[in-house]
Amino acid sequence: MITPTDKSLATSIQEKIDNLNKPKGSLGRLESLALQIALIQQTASPALHHPCHVLFGGDHGIEREGVSFSPREVTWQQMINYTRGGGGVNMFCRQHGFRLRIVDVGVDYDFDREAFPQIIDRKIAYGTENFLHRPAMTAEQWQRALAIGAEQVEECYAEGCNVVSFGEMGIGNTSPSSILMHLFLDLPLDRCVGAGSGLSDEGIRHKYDVLKRAVDHFHDTTSLSPCDAEETCAYFCGFEMAAAIGGMLQAAHRRMVVLVDGFIMTACMLAARAIDANVMDYAVFGHCGDEGGHRLMLDAMGAEPILHLGLRLGEGTGAICAYPIVQSAVNMINEMDTFAHANITKYF
């Protein structure tokens, strides 16, 4: 159960922001971010501690249908690359002081646990089922993935973390993300399907055809109207997505700031919102990426992303890139002087 933020504090927090020695509203998005984070922490003097980034890896049965430009083995190869510090996510974590946790929840590969102890072993299966023909996972697997996500957040929380971001590695995971967007927002599927890691126009058409058939089969074999959020997620999600959803819900339960990455993690937050709408109070959307439909999904969710840099790498990189802006918002509310204390005439 997620407790919504207490909005009754908003007036006093906004008064503090408005009395900082600057023209009212002149720091724009920093001001709204500061207000949100202050409400999350229920204090007019918020602080960010021990940021953590949790990256979940898992493979997808739907990848076998040729819906991704990247081959399946890239999932496990990149997971190993992260242990060596060579990924984009590694670089940004080092730059911005995030602790990185790499978690295997469903990669189709047997990692040498002695050679790669940095990979946390929580493997549920060697990838999901192909949702073109059957549910991606069972109800039990769905609950297990949620629990793994919650467990990882609890470990971060125990270390003093109060701001967390999530990333993913799973070839093919833009496909279930597009379907979640289509089903939960009632948007036309063709507006939700994009190039992923680099599909051509012909590849995008094939991807759409596969996903359309999968959605039709889902409707033919289920009697959910409207769609039950958790059953829908279990039918289409990857294990890494389910774990991220569980992590987001647990982080909000713990009143942590949740930094949301690009298209896939935004789809996961959309799913988390369908399960418990209060999770949105804790969500800070890091960026708008270039994957088809991401801006449309953000707009439909009423989300205001911090950055728009043309990113589409995934891994959670956009969320981490946005973190310094979040830090600036917190520094603003805590470190800027007031008109009265600085002996400056308040002219509004």
Strand order of the largest sheet: 3-2-1-4-5-6
Number of helices: 12
Average the pLDDT over all residues and give the rounded result: 95
Report the strand count.
Answer: 6
**Rg calc:** 20 Å
Describe the structure.
The protein has 348 residues and is of the alpha/beta class. Strand 5, helix 10 and strand 6 form a beta-alpha-beta unit. The chain has a six-stranded parallel β-sheet, sandwiched between helices. It is 45% helix and 9% strand. Helix 2 crosses helix 12 and helix 6 packs across helix 10. It is built from twelve helices and six strands.
Itemize the secondary structure elements and their pairings.
Elements: H1 10-18, H2 28-41, E1 52-58, H3 74-83, H4 88-96, E2 99-106, E3 119-121, H5 139-158, E4 163-169, H6 174-185, H7 201-221, H8 229-236, H9 239-253, E5 257-260, H10 263-275, E6 283-285, H11 294-301, H12 317-335
Parallel strand pairs: 1-2, 1-4, 2-3, 4-5, 5-6
Helix pairs in contact: 1-2, 2-12, 4-12, 5-9, 6-8, 6-10, 9-10, 10-11
